[in-house]
Each structure stands twice: as C-alpha cells, then as structure tokens.
Amino acid sequence: TDGTGRLARGVPDPQRRLTVVTGRTRPPGWSGKLWAVSQGVTRARELVPDSSGFVLLTDADITHDPRHVSTLVAKAQADHLDQVSEMVELNCASQAERMLVPAFVFFFTLLYPFARVNNPRSRVAGAAGGTVLVRWSALA
Questions:
Q1: 132 forms bridges with which residues in the sheet?
Q2: Whether the model pTM is above 0.85
Q3: Which InterPro entries does the UniProt entry name for this protein (predicted)?
Q4: 126 neighbors 111 (Cβ within 8 angstroms)
C-alpha cells in the first residue's frame, strides 16, 4: 500500500534476477513490514532452495552503491556475523522530515544503543530495517 511494489517493478533488471512478490492480506497480529519480509523470504526459499549464503532485505526506495552488498557480505564473513545492517542516509526533503527523521534516529539509538548492539556478549539486538543482510542459516 506504500508504493513499494510499484517502485520495485520499475527497477532495471537486465539479468532478470529480481522477483517482486505481490503480498497477500496481512493477518491479524502481524506488522506490515514483518509480514512483507516473511512473504519475501518464503518466495526466495522457493526460488533458491540452497540455504548457503545470504539474503538482503532492503526497501525499494533505497539506492545502493554497486559495491554496497559486497561490502556487507565481506563484513559478515570476516567477522563471522549472521546479520549485518547499516542505517542508510534518510531522505529529509520536507520540513516535516527535517524535524522527524533526526528525532527518529535519536529514539532508535536510545532503544538500541549501538555499543550494545555491536557487542557479541550483549543480548541487545537491533537493525536498521531498510538494509539488513542475513545469513540464510540464521533464518531457520
């Protein structure tokens, strides 16, 4: 309902490797984003049953540098991580966005302090939902 499907279908895909999943009606108790991710992961597993490697969960309105995914994979492999996430630069074009986005980021860092999220001994976990690379085996 937010235009993500329309944006994703408009992405150039010369190698025909992009699959856009048309979502089903969200069941009670599910948030929209998690329901969309669940459906996407299910479809990806159908298309690529090999569970080695990684899956990238990203929003359609995020433009990735061509090297970005390789950088995330290299970080995950070098540090033996099941998940790598980066907060991308958020669009702050309107007055409302310039007021709300910094407050959102500040609140996010209060809920998920980066020092604790990045500490392997900490039970605190967090990810910026727009860009999350996850090892397939961790999605069991």
A1: 57, 85
A2: no
A3: Nucleotide-diphossugar_trans (IPR029044)
A4: yes
